[in-house]
């Protein structure tokens, strides 16, 4: 069963690496657009984001990989990989949302869309954490900071939207 664990970890690591590459390709935290945006006082410094995301991406790859391995092993015993397929689909969907947020925010320059996108990502992250927790409470607790961070990111995205929507409204008047 060690081969299933390695296969699962490689699968989730590849998905996470692709997500990081997609998100990084769109992100421009030092660009003019981001610099001009009004941000709340509680906005973390730019240096915090790569540290947080590197830690979270490592966490996601490990917790989802080990969970996927458990589900594949259970599927070999029961003869059905339906749960593993559902879990992998949920993981891939979550990571697609994750990588896509940067495109909505930095490239499309749509704070409203980004705030909504972030809310969907946060809900997906909470669901992914729930799925992992169902298989392993320890791994579920280890993944919980990801759900918390995406909830925080949603609050931050909403604040940026609100602050800049008001600023745009005042400029238009």
From TrEMBL:
UniProt superkingdom: Bacteria
Gene Ontology biological process terms, A to Z: tetrapyrrole metabolic process
A Pfam family recorded for this sequence: TspO_MBR
Coiled-coil residue windows: none
Protein topology in the membrane: Multi-pass membrane protein
Extent of the signal sequence: 1-17
Subcellular location: Membrane
Alphabetic keyword roster: Membrane, Signal, Transmembrane, Transmembrane helix
Cellular component, GO, one term: membrane
Entry similarity comment: Belongs to the TspO/BZRP family.
PANTHER family tied to this protein: PERIPHERAL-TYPE BENZODIAZEPINE RECEPTOR (PTHR10057), TRANSLOCATOR PROTEIN (PTHR10057:SF0)
Protein name from the UniProt record: TspO and MBR related proteins
Source organism per UniProt: Actinomyces ruminicola
């Amino acid at each position: 069963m060690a081969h299933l664990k390695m296969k699962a970890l490689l699968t989730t690591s590849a998905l996470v690496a692709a997500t990081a590459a997609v998100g990084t390709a769109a992100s421009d935290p030092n660009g003019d657009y981001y610099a001009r945006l009004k941000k709340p006082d509680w906005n973390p410094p730019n240096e915090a984001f790569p540290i947080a995301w590197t830690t979270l991406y490592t966490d996601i790859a490990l917790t989802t990989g080990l969970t996927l391995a458990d589900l594949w092993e259970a599927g070999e015993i029961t003869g059905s990989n339906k749960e593993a397929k559902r879990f992998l689909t949920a993981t891939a969907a979550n990571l697609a949302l994750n990588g896509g947020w940067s495109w909505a925010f930095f490239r499309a320059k749509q704070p409203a869309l980004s705030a909504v996108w972030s809310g969907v990502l946060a809900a997906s992250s909470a669901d992914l954490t729930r799925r992992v927790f169902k298989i392993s409470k320890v791994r579920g607790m280890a993944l919980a900071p990801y759900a918390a961070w995406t909830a925080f990111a949603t609050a931050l995205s909403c604040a940026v939207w609100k602050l800049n929507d008001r600023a745009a409204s005042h400029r238009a008047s």
